[in-house]
């Protein structure tokens, strides 16, 4: 599939049907994350596949995630991530973001919808899943099939013209 078309077609799904994502597709999505580049190849991503009733019940206390049948809790291990004193931002978060982007686009290529979510209480979720201090939850990636009436939000097509965000120097 043409990559730019894939990028244009993907939109944030905020209404999921209860149809499960087949295991085979889940494994492909996770493999796309595994293949992502990370700083110094340290691979600090730690991904929790929240799929069981028990795991989703725990998650729903903090984020409903639009009732997706499966949600990836994407974390980064700050002890494992590349740590360079001259770099002020977190490589763990950057690495986890690249991994999550790979998985989001892989899902789209397989006909599986997703929405990137950061609006949740990271500390509460870390506590709920008993994560050690060095494993930070950065984003949630609900996955599944959109309901029949699911539509992209108006924001989906509202991208700035390229010269507002890119400068050729
Ligand atoms: C870093 C980040 C955080 C986001 N957090 C949320 C969120 O908490 N809840 C939500 O519904 N969408 C969230 N989104 C989705 C954006 O709102 C969405 O990607 C944007 O409005 C463009 O729409 P589109 O994805 O349909 O093209 C987030 C996206 C990114 C990249």
How would you describe the overall organization of this protein?
With 169 residues, the protein is α+β, with helices and mostly antiparallel strands. It has a single domain, classed as NADH Oxidase, CATH 3.40.109. The chain contains six helices and four strands, in the order ααβαβαβαβα. It has helices at residues 3-9, 23-34, 53-60, 91-109, 122-128, 162-165; strands at residues 45-50, 70-77, 113-114, 135-144. It has a four-stranded antiparallel beta sheet with strand order 1-2-4-3, with helices on both faces. Helix 2 (23-34) packs antiparallel against helix 4. The radius of gyration is 17 Å and the shape is globular. Bound molecules: flavin mononucleotide. Residues 11-12, 14, 115-119, 152-153, 155-156 line the site of flavin mononucleotide (FMN). Flavin mononucleotide (FMN) is lined by residues 11-12, 14, 115-119, 152-153, 155-156.
Question: Secondary-structure map with pairings?
Answer:
Elements: H1 3-9, H2 23-34, E1 45-50, H3 53-60, E2 70-77, H4 91-109, E3 113-114, H5 122-128, E4 135-144, H6 162-165
The structure holds flavin mononucleotide.
The site of flavin mononucleotide (FMN) has 12 residues, from loops.
Number of helices: 6
Helical fraction:
25-40%
Shape: globular
**Topology, number of strands:** 4
Order of helices and strands: HHEHEHEHEH
What's the mean pLDDT score? 96
Taking the sheet with the most strands, its summary is: 4 strands, antiparallel
Could you list some keywords that capture this structure?
169 residues, NADH Oxidase, binds flavin mononucleotide
């Amino acid at each position: 599939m043409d990559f730019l078309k894939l990028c244009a077609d993907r939109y944030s799904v905020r209404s999921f049907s209860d149809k499960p994502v087949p295991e085979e597709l889940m494994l492909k999505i996770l493999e796309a994350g595994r293949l992502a580049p990370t700083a110094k190849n340290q691979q600090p991503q730690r991904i929790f596949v929240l799929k069981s009733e028990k795991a989703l019940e725990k998650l729903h206390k903090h984020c409903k995630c639009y009732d997706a049948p499966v949600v990836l809790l994407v974390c980064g291990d700050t002890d494992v991530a590349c740590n360079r004193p001259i770099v002020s931002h977190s490589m763990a978060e950057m690495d986890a973001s690249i991994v999550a982007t790979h998985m989001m686009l892989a899902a789209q290529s397989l006909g599986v919808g997703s929405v990137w979510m950061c609006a949740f209480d990271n500390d509460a979720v870390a506590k709920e899943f008993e994560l050690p201090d060095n494993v930070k939850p950065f984003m949630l990636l609900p996955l599944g099939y959109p309901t029949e009436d699911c539509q992209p939000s108006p924001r989906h097509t509202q991208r700035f013209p390229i010269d507002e965000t890119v400068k050729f120097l």
